[in-house]
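Appendix B. Chain record.
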Amino acid sequence: METRKVNVMGKEMQIPKGMTFGELAKEFEGEVFGKILVAKQGNSLRELICPIRTDEDITFLDFRDKEGVRVYERGISLLLVKAVRDVLGTATGVEIEHSLRGNLYCELRSPQQVPDADLLAKIEARMKEYVAADTPIVKHVCPREVAISIVKEQGLQDKVELFRYRTASNINLYELDGFYDYFFGYMPDSVGALEWFTLMPFETGFLVRFPDPAKTGELLPEEQPRKISKVFLEQMHWCQLMQVRNVAELNRTIVEGKFGDLIRVNEALHEKKIAEIADQIHQRMDKVRVVLIAGPSSSGKTSFANRLCIQLRALGVKPHKVSLDDYFLNREDTPLDEHGKKNFERMEALDLKQLNQDLKQIIAGEEVELPYYNFVTGKREHSGEFVQLGEGEILVMEGIHGLNDRLTPEIPVECKFKIFISAITQLNVDDHNRISTSDSRLIRRIVRDFQFRGRSARTTIESWDEVRQGEEDNIFPFQENADAVFNSATLYELCVLKQYAEPQLFAIEKTMPEYPTAKRLIKFLSYFLAAPGLEIPNNSLIKEFVGGSCFKV
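Structure tokens predicted for this chain:
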């Protein structure tokens, strides 16, 4: 038998030609955390059904790995859709809406119904029957017209519309027990690997709870972030209002020449929301002295802060903008992380004593000189800018730790108004393929970093996991502390960002570690028709990333 020599999980092995990754994976099941979900050979991901064709090193991934988590989610999604059809019939569909702290929020459609615990128990039991039977997921590579015919027969009209705008000649469909569906990205070879999950009622739908990547057999915490969920539901309403619920409907808007109208309505909704937040602050001006704005990377915090200040001025309030970055310790005093690198994400990287002293004096009506942090020299300097709050004046402070009361322990709670901002997208590819909020922000950051910071997409992607970890540690745990939440996502932005991001992503070569992420984002952006951003107003948050903003960003 002809073989090839391959390094597999650190072991040199002779692999029979024609062997699949799944067949080889069986020899390593006991050496990973959970069930093997996908393989990585060189810098490319490979589904377990694929034959091994090269002698590059092979690693098997479970759900501890971010790519394994994505594969697990797609497999669960297919399993869920199939189980709902089994229990409720083909007339009832399920929409996979968004992620909430690692779990999936879903709703039943056609006809819409709010599921109770008993119904969810039946659906979950059906899902687990398939898992126990280790039912295979079969991949079919179909010509585009054949794929359209198949999904139309299955009643998946959202896929029919999506495929109309696809330029690929072939489309991958996945079959589970006679049911065919389309998913963006790699899938497991069977549902037997999807052993840990549960369903629970939430809002007008339900949550699919996923396993905790750090704990064998345990599910993620049963969190119910009501404030963030409310924003998602509001965004779902905006999608319905603008008649754009998925990528196909967005593409149709462009084809029909209505893209400019979509931009104007979306920007009007943003302005209305910012005005509502300004009204909330104005109503509490008898006590509130400082507005704290926090959010993850590429949320549009700077533009939001500027637009909020304009709305406050329209209400007769005089805002004074302050950046938390100006309270960084001198660089030589910055704390180190566990790898000995300076960690600017930690709260201890700020001069908390000076910050609280300045805030107390300002709130007391005293004049204070604000510091200025020189990022070139790494030292805090005198700015020459003084602040003294008079009647109807307020501080507006932007920084990642603003929602954490440990930042300002010496400031009374009633004196603070906290705002969480993030790009919480509700536009989905279709009913069963959601758009990751993290991916949307990464695309924003890739565009901005290249346009204004001279950084390549490769460099941005390389640092993204570290950025995300800082957000998980310092921002997301405190988002429910916010007095107001602003969603900076727009329905139209990926059509505009596409033309900026794609050339940078294509520059990442197959030999580079960042290639799998670049390949995934390129495929993701291929669903969108490109559109010019000429009609985006210059105060839009999107201008912060593509250029032309009227604000200093």
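Further analysis of this model is presented in Appendix C.
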